[in-house]
Structure formats: C-alpha cells, structure tokens
Amino acid sequence: MENTRRIQVISRLGRLICTVLVFLVPVISAFFWVYFNNLYPYMNTEMFKVSLPHVPIHDLSDMARFMGFIVSLLPNAVIIYGIVKLRRLFSLYEKGMIFSKDNVGCFRGMGWALIVLVVAGTVSSTLLSVVLTFANPPGQRMFTVGIGSGDFTTLVLGLAVLLVSWAMDEGRRIAEEQEQFI
Question: Domain ranges in the chain?
C-alpha cells in the first residue's frame, strides 16, 4: 500500500513538472530569439553553451530572429509531444494504472518522438544555418547539414523505448489471455 502511495505522489510531481515544461519550452525559445542579439556574444562561454550551426558575424534582423524562432518550433513541437506523452504516463501511474494499453501507447509515442526528434533537429539545424547567415555577404553564407553522436544516441534510445513498449504490450496481452482462462 505504501509503495502505491509513493508511486502516486512521485507521478503527480512528474505530471506537474511536465505540465510546466509544455509551457516553458516555447516561452524559453521565444525569449531566446527575442534577445538573441544580446545573447550571442556569450554563446561560446563556459557559462552559456548553445549549439547553433553557425554563430552570426553581426546582429540579426527582426525578420531573421522571427524565422529562427519559427524554425526552432519544429524540434520544439516534437519535444512538447514527447513531454505530453510522458505527462499522460505519469497521469496513468497516478491513477494506479501501471500495465495498461494506454501506458504502452505512451511509451510508443515517446519512442517515436525521440526518433522524429533526430530528423526534426537535423532539418531545423540545416534551416538555421541558412537563417543565421542569410544576411552575410556572398561567399560567407552557409548551408550545413550534420548529424552528431548525440543524434545517434537519441535514435538508439528511441528505438529502445519502442522495443520496451512492444515487450510491455506483449506482456499485457499474455496477462489478459491468462485472466480469461481462469
């Protein structure tokens, strides 16, 4: 009984944190792009590391910053989707539903979100390289496409979560079949 209560308390906390994150992700992104020109001189310092495909050589125009925000919405939307799935999973745990079909769906959604995040991040990074260097003089504009070890790790993690969701679903089906025979 005490374990169930602890699961509910921790799940409620996890659900609340996820709810806050759903709203914070786009707000932080918007603030980043609004104040980008003030922030980019500090982007390669030890205190403030931001991974951008290219740091511009001049201040960005309002339109470039707006386009940067729009481009960053692509991976942010995938992140928010994953957070929503995690929030739903915590909500199910809070209700005492540990091994249900809905739980499997949450895990499956999070696995796909991680896989799609790799694609969205690559597309976003490529588009950001254009946005950040568009106002540069000819010969100094960049179009970069890249995938890093972090992307590979995220992809493997997404595949692992999908595999776990499949195993959970098989276990759930077996348990349901056994309940029907008893």
Answer: 2-181
